[in-house]
Amino acid sequence: MQIKYRFGFLLTLLMxxxxxxxxxxxxxxxxxxxxxxxxxxxxxKRIDMSTVSEQTFTVVDGLGSGVLISNDGKILTAAxxxxxxxxxxxxxxxxxxxxxxVLGSDVRSDVALLQxxxxxxxxxxxxxxxxxxxxxxxxxxxxxxxxxxxxxLSAGHLSxxxxxxxxxxxxPSIEFLQTDAAVNTGNSGGPMFDIDGNVIGIVSSIMSHSxxxxxxxxATAANTAKQLxxxxxxxxxxxxxxxxxxxxxKALNLPQPAGILVERIGEGSIGSRLGINSGTxxxxxxxxxxxxxxDVILSVNDIEITPPKVTDGLGFNWSTSDxxxxxxxxxxxxxxxxxxxxxxxxxxxxVVTLTTTVER
Length: 360
Fold this sequence. Notes:
- This protein has helices at 2-35, 79-82, 222-230, 246-251, 270-274, 322-333; strands at 39-49, 57-68, 74-77, 87-91, 97-106, 111-116, 127-128, 139-144, 152-163, 175-179, 191-194, 198-206, 217-221, 239-245, 258-265, 281-285, 288-292, 296-300, 303-304, 340-347, 350-357.
- It has 360 residues and is α+β, with helices and mostly antiparallel strands.
- It folds into two domains: 39-234, Thrombin, subunit H, CATH 2.40.10; 239-357, Pdz3 Domain, CATH 2.30.42.10.
- A six-stranded antiparallel beta barrel has the order 1-2-3-6-5-4. Strands 8-9-10-13-12-11 form a six-stranded antiparallel barrel. Strands 14, 15, 18, 19, 20 and 21 form a six-stranded antiparallel sheet that branches.
- A hairpin with a 2-residue loop joins strand 16 (281-285) and strand 17 (288-292).
């Protein structure tokens, strides 16, 4: 009789222990089915210097992920996926392929906004959630296309929060969410969801020694994306550049302490309309390939590029100091169609002023 009682008691405990796991798994399955049709593969192409010869060019294919967030065809993805793209398009899980154009990007927070040429048929957008409400320890999941394998689900927890500009008053908050969910090449730009299926982040990067997932990934918080790209007018510079200061600035004979060495420019962006020259000479410095020979940006609408006062501790590379970047971003975002954009560049040992107007 005692043996039967103990067996029944243990069986009850096992059933109770299994119930939360089963419920959680079912909730995850239902959330995935609801939101996965809105998750896309982002494919890009750009013209780049050939790795075989410096005198020739080659077409470079780019791959990332993204998520449909509105009924008028807006897609959130990572800035580094589309920043210098000459052509971009998205592929939905049902096979629909649609051309997309970059509306805006913010390289510091690594988030970008795309506009589809047309809305996909039968696809409901995912809902942007309030990333301030999720807490460390909460369950999350990521959907994306690691190595091009679409509709890949990885689950984990929110394992940390990192706000990069806590002391800046009057500037949008830039926050990255840390997770232990598996993230690999191709996941960039994909959505991070809470367990209810709300988008609470856009996958940005991983920290890895092997190049693969090691349980340390970061996503731009959804509230950061809202503030930078949806609540104020976005713009796309299309410029991939390197902040040069100190000895390198002196070696390039810059007339000021800092500037942006332009390496690449996306076709159709403000940078390409200005006629800014991209790099033409590939040089390897400490294992990193850098394109020299392009223009060095000195100022934008009379706002001078300044050296950074502080650097972040997460390994993110910012294109310029936070202070000058924010002032430039706000200045350009505040312009109306027809207003002038004037950029001073250092080209061939001379300061040259390039201009264009803001398009509708």
